[in-house]
Amino acid sequence: MKKNDLVLIGVLLLICGIGAVFFFTHTENGVRHAVITQNNVQLYDIPLTGHTGTEDLIITDEHGTNTIRIEGEAIAVIDADCPDLVCVHTGRAAKKGDVIACLPHKLLIEVK
């Protein structure tokens, strides 16, 4: 290896390090909100950042009923009358990109 090779490696590592610092410091900033859709129709857009207390929503249609709880800065499906209960077992969603889906009821909760 020559001196120029070491300089090139050092510059590339520095650029990667700066990119990583930028990515990790800016991904969790901003307002998080939960978007609830059913049958591709947006029902609710709920801000999660700064939310305190507990709030329950009951969504009912011809497919069935889901009970959704917003607690603190997280959201979860706490009860459903679908046969598999995957949405209930998914747990809480709080980070950007978290998704809760109830396919029998065509319900989708996304944290954005």
Topology:
Blueprint lengths: L2 H24 L6 E6 L2 E7 L6 E8 L2 E8 L2 E7 L5 H4 L9 E4 L4 E5 L1
Antiparallel strand pairs: 1-2, 1-7, 3-4, 4-5, 6-7
Task: Summarize the structure in words.
The protein folds into two domains: 1-30; 33-111, Sandwich (mini-chromosome maintenance (MCM) complex, domain 2). Helix content is 25%, strand content 40%. The chain has helices at residues 3-26, 86-89; strands at 33-38, 41-47, 54-61, 64-71, 74-80, 99-102, 107-111. The strands form two sheets. It has a four-stranded antiparallel beta sheet with strand order 2-1-7-6, with no helix packed on it. β4 (64-71) and β5 form a beta hairpin. The radius of gyration is 21 Å and the shape is elongated. The mean pLDDT is 90.
Please state roughly what percent of the residues sit in beta strands, choosing from under 5%, 5-15%, 15-25%, 25-35%, 35-45% or over 45%.
35-45%
Give me the CATH superfamily of the largest domain: N-utilization substance G protein NusG, insert domain
Number of domains: 2
User: Could you estimate the helical fraction of the residues in percent?
Assistant: 25-40%
CATH topology assignment of the largest domain: mini-chromosome maintenance (MCM) complex, domain 2
Q: How many DSSP helices?
A: 2
* Model regions low in confidence, pLDDT < 50 over at least 5 residues: none
- Just give the CATH class of the largest domain: Mainly Beta
> The biggest beta sheet, please?
4 strands, antiparallel
Order of strands in the sheet with most strands: 2-1-7-6
Q: Structural class, please?
A: alpha+beta
Please tally the β strands and state the result.
7
Task: Give the termini distance in whole angstroms.
Answer: 47 Å
CATH architecture of the largest domain: Sandwich
Rg from alpha-carbon coordinates: 21 Å
Give the CA-based shape.
elongated
Average pLDDT rating? 90
